[in-house]
Amino acid sequence: MFGKPGVQWRLGLAALYLWVSGVVYTKDTSWTCPQPCQCNSRTLEANCSDCQFEVVPDGFPQDCRLLNLTHNDLKTLVSQQFKTLTQLLELDVSDNLLVMIEAEAFLGLRSLLTLRLARNRLRVIPAGAFNGLPQLKLLDIRDNLILVLLDFTFQDLAALLRVDTGRSDLVFVSPHAFAGLTNLRELNVDRCNLTAVPTEGLRPLSGLATLSLHGLGLTTLTNYSFRWLGNLKKLVISHWSVLETLEGNSLFGLNLTFLTVSNCNLSVVPYASLHHLVYLVHLDLSFNPIRYIRGNSLRDLLRLQEFHLVGGQLLRIDPRAFHGLARFKVLNVSGNLLKTLEEGVFSSVGSLGVLRLDDNPLACDCRLLWVLRRRVHLGFDRQPPVCTTEVRFEGWSFLDFAEVDLPGPFTCRRSRILNPKPQHVQIAEGYTVHLHCNAEGDPTPSISWLNPQRVQLSAFGRLQVLANGSLEVRYAQVRDSGTYICLASNAGGNDSIGVSLIVRGFSHSSRNSLLLNETQSFPFEVKTLVVAVTIGVLSFLCSVTICFIFMFLWSKGKGQYKHTATIEYVPRSAASTNNGGKGHVESSRFTMKLI
Ligand SMILES: *[C@@H]1O[C@H](CO)[C@@H](O)[C@H](O)[C@H]1NC(C)=O
Ligand SMILES: *[C@@H]1O[C@H](CO)[C@@H](O)[C@H](O)[C@H]1NC(C)=O
Ligand SMILES: *[C@@H]1O[C@H](CO)[C@@H](O)[C@H](O)[C@H]1NC(C)=O
Ligand SMILES: *[C@@H]1O[C@H](CO)[C@@H](O)[C@H](O)[C@H]1NC(C)=O
Ligand SMILES: *[C@@H]1O[C@H](CO)[C@@H](O)[C@H](O)[C@H]1NC(C)=O
Ligand SMILES: *[C@@H]1O[C@H](CO)[C@@H](O)[C@H](O)[C@H]1NC(C)=O
Ligand SMILES: *[C@@H]1O[C@H](CO)[C@@H](O)[C@H](O)[C@H]1NC(C)=O
Ligand SMILES: *[C@@H]1O[C@H](CO)[C@@H](O)[C@H](O)[C@H]1NC(C)=O
Ligand SMILES: *[C@@H]1O[C@H](CO)[C@@H](O)[C@H](O)[C@H]1NC(C)=O
Ligand SMILES: *[C@@H]1O[C@H](CO)[C@@H](O)[C@H](O)[C@H]1NC(C)=O
Asked: Domains of the chain, with CATH numbers?
C-alpha cells in the first residue's frame, strides 16, 4: 500500500507524537499556574498577558517554557525573581510599567533564549541586571526611556546574538557598553537621539553582521564611522531625515553585501563612499531626493545584483550607469520622474530579471521598445510600467499591447533640422550674434554645437549654447570665424548643419576703442568719447599754456627792474645867465635808492 518506507516511518512518528501529547494532556492537573493565567500544558506555555498583575506571581511550573507577562502593571523586577524557572526559553515582560530591574533579576534562567522588555519605562539598566543568562540569544529593550547605555551593561551575555534597542531617548553609548558581546550578530538601534555614530562603542562587536541605525539626527556621516566592523555584512541607515552627505571614507573598513541608506536627504548617489564595496550585492537608496545616476560610476561594484531607488526624484539614468555589472538582476526605480530608460544603461539586459518602472511619467517611444519586447521575461513584480506622455496610449500598461501591435506607438521620429540651408552670417568685430538651429523629432532632439575646431561648446562662456538651441557669440572676434556645426540628436537619429560665421576686423585705431567697448562695455559711443576727451585735453592744454605765458611775462619784468635810479639834470639858473656867453654847460647828477 505504501510506496516508500519513509512514509511509514513518518506515520509512526506522528502516532508516537499523538500518544505523547495524550499522556501529557492526562497529566494536566499537575501543570497548574497562578490564576488567572492561561496555561497550556501541551506547549508548556503560561499566558499571563493582561492579568493586571502588579508583582510577578509565584507558583509557575518548573518546566514552563514560555512565560508571557505582557500588558500587566509590573513596576519592578526584584532580584532572583525567576530563579526556579530553569527550563524557561522565552520571557516576555513587554508593555508593563517597569522602571526598575534589580541586579540579578534574571538569575537562574539558565536556559533562557529570548528576553523581551520592550515598551516599559526603564531609564537605566543597572550593572548586573542581566547576570546569569548564559544562553540568552535575543534581547529586546525597545521603547524605553534609556538615556545612556552604561559600561558593561551586557557583559555576561556571551551568547547574545541580537539586541534591539532604541526608540529610546538614548543620547550616549558609553565606550564599553557593548563589552563582552563578542558573539553579537545583530544590533538594531531604532530612532534614538544619538548625536554621533558610537564608533568606539561598537568596537567590541567584532562579530557583528547586521547593524540597523534608524532616525539619527546627523547631517553628515563622518569618515571612519564604522571602522571596527570588518565582519559587518548588512548596514541599514534609515530615516536620518537630515543626512545630506556621506564623507568619502565614511564606510571605510566595511566589506558589506547589503547596504540601505533610505529616507534620508541625499541628493546624489554617494559614489566615493561606495566604490570600495566590491562585494556589495544589494544597494537601496530609496526615498532620497536623488536626481541623476551618472554613467560608469558604479562599475567598481562588480557583484551588485540589486539597485533600489524608489520614491526619489530621478529625472535621468545616464547611459552606462550600470555598466560593468555582469550579475545585475533587479532595478527598482518606481515612483520617480523618469521619462525613459535606455537599454544602454546596462551592460546587458539579458541578466535583468526584475524591472520596476511603474509610477514614472514614461514616454512610450522607441527608447522603451526593449522593455516592451522583454516584458514577459522582466516580470514587473505585478506592477507593469504605464505610458503617460503619449496622448493616444496614455494610461496603457505595457502588458496591454498585443504582440501584433509592435512596435506600434513605440517608434521614434528621427531628428530633423528645420533650417536645412547652410547659413552664412557676417558681422563686424565686437558685435554679438545668435546662430539659430531649430529641430524637430520624437522624442524632442537635443541640440549641441561644435566650433570650427570641432570641439563641443557648452552652456557657459563667451560662446554659449542657449537653452533654446541657439548659439550665442558675444563680442565676436576675428578668430571666431569659421564653420560651426549644429547637431540635433535623439534616439531616432541625428541631423546636422553647418553655419559659417565671418567676423570682419576693424582698422587699427578703431580696434583700440572697440577693445575698450568689449572689456568695459561703455554706455556711450566711442566718437562722443573721443570728442569729449579731445575737448577736455585741449582746454587743459590751453589753460596750462596761458598760465605759462603769464608766468613768463612776470618773470621777464622782474629781471629788468632796478633798485636804484640815476637822474641827470641841468640847473636852471646857470642856463639863463650863460645864454649868449661862453656856452659852457655844467650838468649835475644824483642817484637815489628806490625802496
Ligand atoms: C493570552 O491571553 C490574552 C488575554 O487573556 C489573550 O488575549 C491572548 O490571545 C492570549 N495569547 C496567546 C498567545 O494565547
Ligand atoms: C504575549 O501575549 C501577547 C498578547 O497576546 C502577544 O502579543 C505576545 O506576542 C505574546 N508574547 C509571546 C512571546 O508570545
Ligand atoms: C530627542 O531630542 C528632541 C529634541 O532635541 C526631543 O524633542 C525628543 O523628545 C528626544 N527624544 C526622542 C526619542 O526623539
Ligand atoms: C534637505 O536638503 C535640502 C537642501 O539640499 C534642504 O533645503 C532641506 O531643508 C533638507 N531637508 C531636511 C528635512 O533637512
Ligand atoms: C574624509 O575622507 C575623504 C576621502 O579621503 C577626504 O577627502 C575628506 O577630506 C575627509 N573628511 C574629513 C572631514 O576629514
Ligand atoms: C568580504 O566579504 C566576502 C563575502 O561577503 C568575502 O568572501 C571576502 O573574503 C571578504 N573580504 C575581506 C577582505 O574580508
Ligand atoms: C521595489 O520597491 C518597493 C518599495 O520599496 C517594494 O515594495 C518592492 O518589493 C521592491 N521590488 C523588488 C523586486 O524588490
Ligand atoms: C534664443 O534665445 C535668444 C536669447 O534669449 C534669442 O536671441 C534667440 O532669437 C532665440 N532663438 C530662437 C531660435 O528663437
Ligand atoms: C548621434 O549622435 C550621438 C552623439 O550626439 C552619437 O552617440 C550617436 O551614435 C549618433 N547616432 C547616429 C545614428 O548617428
Ligand atoms: C559697443 O557694444 C555695444 C553692445 O554692448 C554695441 O551696441 C555698440 O554698437 C558697440 N559700439 C561700437 C562702436 O561698436
From this structure: 43-183 (3.80.10.10), 414-504 (2.60.40.10)
